[in-house]
């Protein structure tokens, strides 16, 4: 039997201070650099975070970091959960708080979700080069078009790497972030402890809690679900896309009514969950035949929306008959963002060959 004791793991705020293994080292490095540069006022001023002041009710000045304000504004425009967090949440066992030990796909799929999320947030796009069409979608080069931090640690860490690196293709970035490379010069691009850091982010958002369980030979931090409503909302959304003839996505804090690309994002979630081998967890309440139809529909969606332009024809056996229309409307409303959606299609194309990559 696994014994549990509650502990309070939290993550540090901001892009430079996630919950990864290298964060403390990075923090110590900043401190030592600051000490070395104290003799240079300009260097110290550049390395120190910008601080602003506002007057409080009692007349005292209150210091604050403007980055906190900008990150809060960014979060208010986005769904409460990122694609990575939604996929991870689908995979977690509710009470036990850990993923299946036999799931080899989820790590790679989560890195793909990071690239997807950056594209949806308008941070990256395909390089604007007409000759790109000569290459398959996953082999087209992407570039950073907005380096504004998002306030999500893993997204900001990846964004900084993409900004400072040479331009590479979608599949290359997902491979590098996953550590799937033989190039030792680029092994530093691998994101470490992604699942644990995402789980800690969900703890911060009140969706999970942290416990320590003993598994006979070792102790492991686990993250049981606290807010079951959040996970059920994700399951409901997935089932709606995969079982309903007319797909209608109701607004919620996890997918606001006025949010851009609501249907495209939901299809990306379904395809990412499928690639991560956690989709079945959203379909457990369906009968055998309904599940088979849902998986067949997922295959159709993945085949259709891993191409660009997508949403050109009805897919499936009468399920989601309105999806091509609503997705065409979403794309037409944001013609200037077609290069970002091309990145989305490229990520889904990578997911279609996930089994052969791993």
TrEMBL record:
The keyword Transferase does not apply. It is found in: Golgi apparatus, Golgi stack membrane. GO terms for molecular function: phosphatidylinositol-4-phosphate binding. Signal peptide: none annotated. It comes from the Eukaryota. It is a peripheral membrane protein. Keywords: Golgi apparatus, Lipid-binding, Membrane. Residues 23-35 have a biased composition (Low complexity). Coiled coil: none annotated. Residues 57-77 have a biased composition (Basic and acidic residues). GO terms for cellular component: cytosol; Golgi cisterna membrane; Golgi membrane; trans-Golgi network. The keyword Transmembrane does not apply. GO terms for biological process: Golgi organization; Golgi to plasma membrane protein transport; Golgi vesicle budding; protein localization to Golgi apparatus; retrograde vesicle-mediated transport, Golgi to endoplasmic reticulum. InterPro entries: GPP34-like, GPP34-like_sf. Residues 1-77 are annotated as: Disordered. Residues 36-55 have a biased composition (Polar residues). Its main location: Golgi. Phosphatidylinositol-4-phosphate-binding protein that links Golgi membranes to the cytoskeleton and may participate in the tensile force required for vesicle budding from the Golgi. Thereby, may play a role in Golgi membrane trafficking and could indirectly give its flattened shape to the Golgi apparatus. May also bind to the coatomer to regulate Golgi membrane trafficking. May play a role in anterograde transport from the Golgi to the plasma membrane and regulate secretion. Belongs to the GOLPH3/VPS74 family. PANTHER family: GOLGI PHOSPHOPROTEIN 3 HOMOLOG SAURON, TRANS-GOLGI PROTEIN GMX33. This is Vacuolar protein sorting-associated protein 74.
